[in-house]
Amino acid sequence: MLASKQKKKKYLSYLIRPRSIALVGASANKSKIGGIIWSYLQSFSGKKYPVNIKQETIDGIRTYNRIIDIPEEVDLAIIAVPAKNVPSVIDDCIEKNVKAAIIISSGFSEIGEQGKKLEDEIKNKISSTNLVVLGPNTLGVYVPSIGLDSMFVVKEKSRRPGKGPIAYISQSGASAVGFMDMAEYHHYGISAFVGLGNKLDVNENDMLELFCDEKDTKVICMHLESIVDGQRLLKLCKKITPSKPVIILKAGRSEAGARAAMLHTGSMAKPSQAMDGAFKQVGIIKANDMLELFDYSRILAYQKPMFGPNVAVVTSGGGYGVIATDYIEDSSVGGGLRMAEISIRSKEKLREKLPGFASVNNPIDLTGNVTDEMFDHAFNVVNEDENVDGILSFPLIQTPLTTDKLVEITEWWFKNGKKPMVPCIIGGSYSEEVIRKLEARGVPVFPDIRRAVLSLRVLYERGKYLMKVKKGEKFKFEKRE
Amino acid sequence: MLASKQKKKKYLSYLIRPRSIALVGASANKSKIGGIIWSYLQSFSGKKYPVNIKQETIDGIRTYNRIIDIPEEVDLAIIAVPAKNVPSVIDDCIEKNVKAAIIISSGFSEIGEQGKKLEDEIKNKISSTNLVVLGPNTLGVYVPSIGLDSMFVVKEKSRRPGKGPIAYISQSGASAVGFMDMAEYHHYGISAFVGLGNKLDVNENDMLELFCDEKDTKVICMHLESIVDGQRLLKLCKKITPSKPVIILKAGRSEAGARAAMLHTGSMAKPSQAMDGAFKQVGIIKANDMLELFDYSRILAYQKPMFGPNVAVVTSGGGYGVIATDYIEDSSVGGGLRMAEISIRSKEKLREKLPGFASVNNPIDLTGNVTDEMFDHAFNVVNEDENVDGILSFPLIQTPLTTDKLVEITEWWFKNGKKPMVPCIIGGSYSEEVIRKLEARGVPVFPDIRRAVLSLRVLYERGKYLMKVKKGEKFKFEKRE
User: Fold this and answer.
1) Residues A138-181: pLDDT tens digits?
2) Stretch 342-361 of chain A: residues touching chain B, C-beta under 8 Å
3) Which of A22, A161, A368, B151 is deepest in the core (most CB within 10 A)?
């Protein structure tokens, strides 16, 4: 049993690291699912074989009638044929000793009893084999580092993110489309996307096992509508979270939401009464929607944790500072964050280079006369202040004297500061330009004060958890210096 | 006393509807505040006079040494000279019988005792006159319909919104810059912006009096850091809110935030314990930050109220529907909204034109095969359903079969449906394009599920309030048909 488990774990990796792929249902017709996938598979760096019983060639390439006709080894089969034909394709996969299969096709348990039977039939077929099956009813996988893209949504409308440190697992295909499109726009990079679909075989716990050891993955984020085995999920997360943050959006929290989830994926979502506490216990960061999942995973991937609750707000808009303070001190948003007491020495240092009417209290208000250098100076001072654990950077980007150099300065402190920093920018066209520039440099920017404060809160939650599991002070010291 | 009050109220209108303006401190130097304002005043449709004691001409136009040298009547003086020179300019304004003055200059109570004395001096001067004074320490006013723009932030970085139904009053200049820049980007139109600054004379209650009767203004939104006279504010709002929604962001709600507000504007922010209840009582909609102020004012300006709690979610992304359901049913976000029970007749009608695997329960999931016509059909059905009070439109915009026509369909139902509809779209470049198109047609779009649900909640709060003050059922019937 253990041997089989380990083998299964090994086979899982072929879902995201195959050397060769067969596309069953490959088509020359670009308006068909098998046509879209075949065209996007051309970027795959390994071998790819089109399987189609009706077409002899696709774009001049010879097709195979069945997987078993392919003369070489096949690591991954991507299946895009009508549901009723899938069981026989699975037979072929088993015969050919394919390691992993993705059933893109829909028409299974999500449509009711008849589809459920088809799923059971496939379950039976694979139960005594090592074949791992993802789906059905899924977008499949997307792994930018090897050009693997099984998603049947056209790139013109739905872009794909670049390479990066985040593994993204979603039980909702639709949300995944919106999420990844948004990710590309914000230069949010992923190591792999895996769409779970109906979870006939592969589920979220398998993904935790897979990405736990996957070295390109620094953060795991999951959008789930049901939880297959909560105890196992918690156990796995307890093992993973000391080294990699795990963020989970469990949709279907309300009773009506759970009903909607059941109708949507055919899986029963369990009520979440005790879930929040258990999640927190094992270091899971909870997200309430796609945007939180997006924000928390990118800030945890690109920024260091925060090892105390004290936030310095560095702004050039006095009114911004007041609103930020309200959110930081409101426990329902800040969750225990508080405004740092800027040290007397820091205040003196700030005064050296700031205009007389600037405020050196927290929020530090550099005023509308702020220059790039003043921001640089203020970031320096708060990074050195022992009373400060994290920084909210909130420039009024429309003031006259700051320039493009502020982008560089913000990037530098975001990446090299001792304390974690979260940037917030609000405005229109010019702000959008600045945000695009910063995000292209790997600096996530929040166009919403509340989202920025929530992200700081998550960095602090992460810091508290690490101090707990790594026995506190020593770790704190190590990370700070 | 009453006579003087009425006169003052009349004079207030010269702040936003002057026939002639004198700019004291006008300059030919475009990097000076008086230079920026003079250049933007060129778009003003009335008469404008540059006042500058040092320069003979500005761009070939003859300047005046003092306001009293101007041979014709001056309705509004905009003052942009150093703080210490302001009192003598106020003397001139009184002598010249100017109706309203805006003190742009900073260096008053916000810098401490010395500035406070200057303010008191000006207060004394105007106390026995009808001159109304806005500021000091303010961006002044912006009234797109007459090209009046006293804001000294350059348009390259900080764009100005177009004409529209929203009056925007802000005590924070910085936030106003960010807010209006954002407003322009989202085609949010304003009737007027007024920056309150230090509120030496004119305050938020004067603004409520002014915009109460201002026919271009359908919605009043205010960003306040202090409240001068809470009782009067509530009394005024009670009078206004039955006909015009009032949305207030009271920043400085936390103790630390109130301290920050005091440091920032020199005004003491009162604790807000009982405020929420009192606000609700008189129909004020409360916003927690700039984005909520923005969202609530635009949805109230462009969409009808909601006269019951039942929301129909129309989506093409099953996962989207689940998250939306969670928020609608979560009272901390939905605030009493709930998922509508779609009627049997509506379900039948939906099934007529939807694919078999679509869900006709709520959330209504049109699936990835959705066409423009299916959205049109679904919007029609839920608008006719007696069980539905409002609609969340949440297309997965990346699906292949919908086209640009969906923009027109969404616009039509947004503007002509019997039930209020709030659109939510999430994604990247293509979504941004669609959102830009919809917003250019006057349809606000929310790129965030939580914000969309909060906006529906606000429409429902507004509906409940109107039913209460207008004695319910009759009004409900009128608005629905």
Assistant:
1) 999 999 999 999 999 999 999 999 999 999 999 999 999 999 99
2) 356-357, 359, 361
3) A22
B464 in contact with A, Cβ within 8 Å: no
pLDDT of residue A100: 98
Q: How far apart are CA B308 and CA B305, in angstroms?
A: 9
What is the fold, at CATH topology level, of the domain defined by A305-480? Answer: Rossmann fold (3.40.50)
- What does the radius of gyration of chain A's CA atoms come to, in whole angstroms? 25
**Homologous superfamily, domain A1-137:** NAD(P)-binding Rossmann-like Domain (3.40.50.720)
- Is the ipTM beyond the 0.90 threshold? yes
User: Cβ contacts of residue A17 below 8 Å, gap of 6+?
Assistant: A143, A146
- Asked if A400 lies within 8 A of B429 by C-beta distance, the reply is no
Q: Percent of chain B at pLDDT above 90?
A: 86
- Intervals of chain A under pLDDT 70: 1-7, 262-273, 472-481
Cβ contact B428–A260 (<8 Å): no
Per-residue pLDDT, averaged over B134-163, amounts to 96
* Predicted pLDDT of residue A396: 96
How close B250 comes to chain A (CA, Å)?
9
Burial of B347 (0-12, 13-18, 19+ CB in 10 A): middle
Within 10 angstroms of residue B84's Cβ, the number of other Cβ atoms is 12
At A80, the amino acid letter reads: A
In what helix (H) or strand (E) does residue B177 lie, and over which residues does it extend?
helix B173-185
* B1-139 CATH fold: Rossmann fold (3.40.50)
B326 and A265 in contact by Cβ < 8 A? no
pTM for the structure as a whole:
0.94
User: Choosing among A313, A326, A370, A446, which should be mutated to test the B contact, i.e. which has the most B CBs within 10 A?
Assistant: A326
Q: Where are the domains of chain A?
A: 1-137, 153-302, 305-480
Mean pLDDT for the stretch of residues B128-145: 96
Nearest CB to B429; choose among A107, A159, A362: A159
pLDDT for B477 beyond 50: no
CA-angle at B329, arms to B327 and B330, nearest 5°: 65
CB contact under 8 A, A316 and B159: no
Q: What would the pLDDT profile of B262-299 be if each residue is shown by its tens digit?
A: 666 555 455 565 778 899 999 999 999 999 999 999 99
Contact B322 A260 (CB under 8 A): yes
CATH architecture of the region A153-302: 3-Layer(aba) Sandwich (3.40)
Q: How many CB pairs under 8 A join A and B?
A: 280
Q: Does B305 sit behind a cis peptide bond, omega within 30 degrees of 0 on the bond before it?
A: no
Say yes or no: do domains B1-139 and B305-480 share a fold. Answer: yes
- Is residue B344 over pLDDT 50? yes
CB B303 within 8 A of CB B218: no
